[in-house]
Design goal:
Family: Belongs to the N(4)/N(6)-methyltransferase family.
Number of helices: 17
CATH topology of the largest domain: Rossmann fold
GO molecular function, one term: site-specific DNA-methyltransferase (adenine-specific) activity
Strand order of the largest sheet: 3-2-1-4-5-7-6-8-11
Pfam family, one: HsdM_N
Oligomer: single chain
Number of strands: 11
Order of helices and strands: HHHHHHHHHEHEHEEHEHEEEEEHEHHH
CATH superfamily of the largest domain: Vaccinia Virus protein VP39
Helix content: 40-55%
Strand content: 5-15%
InterPro entries: D12N6_MeTrfase_N, DNA_methylase_A-5, DNA_methylase_N6_adenine_CS, SAM-dependent_MTases_sf, T1MK-like_N_sf, Type-I_RE_MTase_Subunit
Distance between the termini: 60 Å
Shape: globular
CATH class of the largest domain: Alpha Beta
GO biological process, one term: DNA restriction-modification system
Structural class: alpha/beta
Length: 516
Amino acid sequence: MTVKADIDFQKDLFDAANKMRGSIAPSDYKHHVLPLIFLRYLSNKFEQRQLEIETMTKDPSSDWYAPDQEMYEIISEDRDLYRAENVYFVPEESRWSYIVKNAKQANIKEILDIAMKRLEEENPELEGMLPRIYQSSNLPAENVSGLIEIFSRDVFSAKDERSVDILGRTYEYFISSFASSEGNRGGEFFTPSSIVQLLVAMLEPISGKVFDPACGSGGMFIQSEDYTPRKRELSFYGQENVTTTVRLGKMNVLLHGINADIRLGDSLLNDQFPDLEADYVIANPPFNQKDWGAERISKEDPRLIGPVTNSNANYMWMQHFLYHLSNKGTAGFVMANGAMTTNLREEKEVRERLVDEGYVDCVVQLPEKLFFTTGIPCCLFFLSKNRDGKEGFRERKNEILFIDARKMGTLVSRKQKALSKEEVDKIAAVYHNFKNEGTSEEYEDVAGFCKVSTIDEVKKNDCKLTPGIYVGTEESEEDDVPYEEKMTQLTQRLIEQFEESNRLQEKIRKDLEELV
């Protein structure tokens, strides 16, 4: 399936599912739809493993050979044979074949709740992940049946090995589409893919611990796992403050074959990983949180390098990220543009400390409209504890890279832009050339786009971190046409346009007179 065909298929699928929504709000409806995709995924994995076991039981040379049907049934229900291959055991009432067989029953909503309950009972590690909301919801039984029919299409058949991958991509597409339809609320659980791709491309997570303390639906983890060529060498840790979003994230990472430790809780006030030292922190925290509970932060909190304020949590998030870095770690995260220049005393003091102590590695100012959930302009910050010339990186503790990418991005809808792969690669390459030793391409300042500034230069600008202050303006291309000749050409063109305008006005006037 080509990329375009894949997108068209997923869009058709989402449109079909959305027709079943009825009067339920998108923010609630996703909790009815996404668990069905997850249930289908677990059932497919189970069925595929069941077929492998069946093959073993028919082989007389196999340790699992079953001479009769009774023995086969015993072996095929052996939980250990599934767990040995990291496959969840799906009980009869939770299998997709059973759901499909009962899809037209009047009590299908109750059947789904029981399916979710039995699946959690059989697999304690799934506890709390699967909602039991169907029977109590306003979604009509026939609409639930319609959803089951949609996810029973041949393309999702367990007999097709690609179905597991297709279900993972479908889940991600649905999350993106629900976020778009929810507007501002969608940003609570979803970060636009081009921003995630840029963060990951710049951080280059190859091996080690990846931490996202505002992990939403887990998109940062999936992109990081896709990036590294050495699978299974990354471990993932996440925290999220909304119960339903934790469920979405846990389902999403499992759908992509990723083991992630995702915990529920307020990262700033109830850190679930107090001792974690991550090699990569990657996050899109809530923008400009007010009244977030600063009064509950002790002055002795080990995360603090400066004061906190209840009027905005941005710089508490930054201190949280910095604290959780290992001594060779780097954090890349999204921030509202105001964080680059805020003059609020507490925030400015922390910003000055970050600059003065050499933690600020890079700041990227992004184009507007990348988020469909907010009109707030945003940027990327990169803080690093690995700027002293170790681990294959250049010594750059007295430097900060500024990138102004505001002119990048193309409209993908009336309200939203996205960065192209070429633009992501271009920005990431500039950062890599700046920090890495022995890169194939030497870093160079580009007027209007990127500039390496010294800490002293930044201090002279009141520690403001807006790239536009430092990168200057883009050099314009000079041509050889003299000014007088250019003005003559422009004047002649303007006269011709005026004459054409007069001609059209006269024609319209005559046409109107004939009508009268």
